[in-house]
Amino acid sequence: MTSASRREAARRALALDDRALLGQCERDFFTAGGPGGQHRNKTASGVRLTHPATELSVTATERRSQTLNRQIALERLRSGLRVLAAAPKVRKRTERTEASRRRRREEKAHQSAKKSRRRRDAWGE
To answer: 20-32 pLDDT, tens per residue?
Structure first.
């Protein structure tokens, strides 16, 4: 999938409301270990949302509630889609200014003169 088509799919997904966006996503619920006690370790409260059109996947496992984790995952998905939808800035090559070209020529002439003097001094001239 090209980045342009992913960017366009992200823009279309951002225009949707939460219910429609969730409808497009693949939802996966899993047990999220860690602090939170037996409730968190035994229930499938972790949420993974995958948006197939953009190949973007986010997870949320912070809360003990699956509903809260789903809301957090949806916020993260929208955040990721915003980043993906942003067009990259076109970089424009800049030209050197006349003053910087002049300074460079002067510096080159100065270095050349120094080396010329060294040559003359080495031969005893």
So the answer is: 999 999 999 998 7
Residues 6+ apart with CB under 8 A from 36: 64
Is the CB of residue 13 less than 8 Å from the CB of residue 53? yes
* Entry pTM: 0.69
Same domain, 13 and 34: yes
The number of C-alpha atoms within 13 Å of 101 and in the hemisphere containing its C-beta is 4
Do residues 68 and 89 touch, judged by C-beta distance below 8 A? no
Flag whether 53 is in a domain.
yes
CA-based nearest residue to 29, from 50, 41, 42, 46: 46
* Domain that residue 71 falls in: 3-85
Residue 45 lies in a domain: yes
